[in-house]
Structures are given as C-alpha cells and as structure tokens.
C-alpha cells in the first residue's frame, strides 16, 4: 500500500478529484469490499478494536446477524502532528491489527465505518493546519481501509474549539465531495433540550459551510437522563433544532437525525435497559430517523456479578443480559431479523445491605482511605479532599463502595 504523506498542502488536498480519490480506494485499499446498504452503516454499533477487551467481531456476527461495525477512535498522535492514529498511539499507516479485524468482518460479508474523535485525546481538527490538511489525514484512513462510511464524533473538548470544529466540518465536506457515495455521520453530545450550546454552534458551522451529512446524531446519556422517555424527548427537541437551523420540515429533519445511546449503566450511573433500547428503536423507526447506534459492543455482555457492584465498566454493561443483547436492536434497525436466543439472563442480585459509615461533612478534611456515607452509599477517599461532594467519577476524589 502506498503511504500518503500525513498532511498534504491545501492545494493538493482540494485538488483531489472524485475520480482520483475513487481510483486510490480501488487501487490501493487493503481489503476493499463492496458497500453495504447505508442502513447497515447507520446501525453500526461502536467497537474499540484495540482496547477494552475487544470481543470477537465474527462471533458477534454469527450470534446476532450484525453486518456493520463502527470502529473507534482515530486521533492525532499523542506526541503531536497531523497524521491519523488509533487512539493517539498506533499509526494508521503501519497498522495491521485493525486491518485484521476488518478482514474478518468483510470475510463474513460485513463491513466497517471508522469513527474519528470521541471523548478526550487530541483530534486531527485540532492538530492540522486547516480543513484541507485535516481532510488529507482522514483520506489516508479511507484509502487504507477502503471505507464506504465515516463518523465524525465531535464532543469535548474539541467541540469547544471553534477553529477545530471549522476544520472538522470542512474536512467532512471535502471527503464527502471526493469520495462519491461515502456515508458520513456527525455525532455530538445530547442534552434534555436536544444538544447544548456547542452542539448548536457546530450545526451553525455546518450550515455556513453548506455541509449536510447523512445525519447529525446526539448521545442522550451522561446528562441526567432517566430511561427511554427522557431520550425520546431529547430526540424530539433535537429535531426542532435541526428544523430551525437548516430550515427543514419535520420529516426532513428526522431523515437527517440519529441516536447514539449507551447500553446498560452510563458513566454517570444512568441505567438504560433492553426495554429502553426497544422504546427508542420504536421511536427511531416510527419517525424514519436515519441512524440508531450505541456505545459500545465492548460493553455488550454481562458483568460478574451482573450489576458490577454498581459501577460502570468499559468491558461489560452492569445490567443483567445475554451477550450481544443490545447489538440485536441495531440489527432490527437495519431491517434484519436477529437469530433467536435461548439462555435466560441471570437476574441482577439484590445486594445485601451494608451499614453506612459516618456521614460525609463538607467542612471535614479527608485523606486517602477515609470512608464516609453520602446519599445512601459508602464512599472511600482516593486522596486528600475537602468540600468535594462524593460522586462516581473516574477523575473525582471519591470511590463508590456501593449502597448502604
């Protein structure tokens, strides 16, 4: 495979013609395959192929009928520069590990989309000089893997950076023009109102550049959501935002709208069950929405114990389930019928109540190992803290030890 330079100049990037780019894909992509119907790319759940105990994609396909996967995430190098890497550490140019996963999926009749961005890390829109250079970096990913679909996951901290978002949206538009038929999704944070201020600014940037992807998707979790009803309400509100921003009618806005959920226990302790997924799926199909996906297949399996001690995991869902239960909702959205399942999930056990420690006090000083109770949970201090309310966050000073 011919290795492209990391960041072509603006003239070189813009000068890529549709025919030239297509020839690159056909002539040089490793494992290029025929495109699936766009509905499959719209239904592709996220899979981290190098982190979070990656599951066997082929086994998921056999068990569920799933055909498409959203591989995550492509970032700028941790050490700086405008070249694509997996997770900031593994250069796309020399990759063989992700390529092997893709080959397995394609060998079974499936395909992949690649997601760029995500939460945290340095994005190429931040590292590259302009939209053309950003597009040239992403073109390397499209060309190497022969992609028919790509996802721009624009969230914190990048979407607070106006210049970076301008680069990302501009790059998405260039890629859309230079790769005929490329399926492009744009994913951003969800709020009860649909999306927040930065999400709205991103939409305005897309409007100003005359860019329309296949869909704009929101992630209605980690924002105080409580089950499917709160998520469908957010999707309704986001539809209104799309209408007012782009001047679309309701049906056109839904045709360019997507849902990206989180299966099981979210980062902030929200619980989204299989029943919640079914409700949102019914809403999405009933309103002819363009996309239904979730984070992530790495988490689409039961923890041991099923509730994982009331903690969120990157490798299991923290709810009672059979393996790949949530993937089957993606299969249904794509219009296929998942295979039937026989095992019954082990019910989430009722935890034995434990006594509560001394109540947390905002005026007290706590050091590593100190235990307190707050909001009917026991908490252990990770380090010195004072007047920091106990909360279950990876970056906070408190570790949740469960209900009391």
Helices and strands in order:
Blueprint: H1 10-14, H2 18-28, H3 38-43, E1 46-47, H4 57-64, E2 68-75, E3 85-86, E4 90-91, H5 97-107, E5 111-117, H6 124-127, H7 131-145, E6 149-153, H8 162-178, E7 183-189, H9 197-209, E8 215-219, H10 227-246, H11 250-255, E9 257-262, E10 264-265, E11 271-272, H12 274-286, E12 291-295, H13 327-334, E13 365-366, E14 371-374, E15 377-381, E16 385-386, E17 398-403
Parallel strand pairs: 1-2, 2-5, 5-6, 6-7, 7-8, 8-9, 9-12
Antiparallel strand pairs: 2-3, 3-4, 10-11, 13-16, 14-15, 15-17
Give the SSE string.
HHHEHEEEHEHHEHEHEHHEEEHEHEEEEE
Distance between the termini: 58 Å
The best one-word shape is globular
Instruction: Write down the oligomeric state.
Output: single chain
**Number of β-strand runs:** 17
Mean pLDDT metric: 89
Please compute the radius of gyration using only Cα atoms.
22 Å
Strand content: 15-25%
Helix content: 25-40%
Category by helix and strand content: alpha/beta
The count of helical stretches stands at: 13
* Main sheet summary: 10 strands, mixed
* Weakly predicted, low-confidence segments: 1-30
Task: Give the tags.
404 residues, alpha/beta, three-stranded antiparallel sheet
How would you characterize the overall build of this protein?
Strands 1, 2, 3, 4, 5, 6, 7, 8, 9 and 12 form a ten-stranded mixed β-sheet that branches. This protein has a three-stranded antiparallel β-sheet with strand order 14-15-17, with no helix packed on it. The chain is globular. Helices cover 34% and strands 18% of the residues. Helix 12 packs parallel to helix 13 (327-334). The protein starts with 9 loop residues before the first helix and ends with a strand. It contains 13 helices and 17 strands. The model is unreliable at 1-30 (pLDDT under 50). It has 404 residues and is α/β, with parallel strands linked by helices. The longest helix is centred in the middle third of the chain and has 20 residues, at 227-246.
